[in-house]
């Protein structure tokens, strides 16, 4: 997998959120919008428990996998 590297310098573009001119290393919301989004939408990280996979009743095992 290719590693993401920043461009050689900051790029100038129009912020897709507030439509103001921005100079950032990557395209996306400007630093002001990112700060606002973190304050409004951000939350504490929490642990999410994943349920164990239980196959449906109509699923049968693969014949090759069950071969003795």
How are the elements arranged and paired?
Blueprint: E1 11-14, E2 21-24, H1 31-41
Antiparallel strand pairs: 1-2
Measured by DSSP, the beta-strand proportion falls in 5-15%
Terminal CA distance reads 39 Å
Mean pLDDT: 83
Cross-sheet strand order for the largest sheet: 1-2
Structural notes for this entry:
The protein is α+β, with helices and mostly antiparallel strands. The chain has a domain at 11-41. Helices cover 16% and strands 12% of the residues. The longest helix has 11 residues, at 31-41. The protein starts with 10 loop residues before the first strand and ends in a 27-residue tail after the last helix.
Summarize the structure.
This protein has one helix spanning 31-41; strands spanning 11-14, 21-24. The chain is of the alpha+beta class and 68 residues long.
Key traits:
elongated; alpha+beta; 1 helix; two-stranded antiparallel sheet; 2 strands; 68 residues
């Amino acid at each position: 997998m290719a590693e993401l590297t920043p461009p050689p310098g900051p790029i100038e573009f129009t912020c897709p959120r507030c439509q103001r001119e921005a100079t950032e290393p990557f395209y996306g919301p400007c630093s002001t919008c990112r700060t606002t989004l973190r304050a409004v939408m951000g939350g504490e990280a929490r642990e999410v428990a994943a349920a164990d996979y239980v196959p449906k009743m109509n699923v049968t095992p693969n014949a090759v996998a069950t071969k003795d």
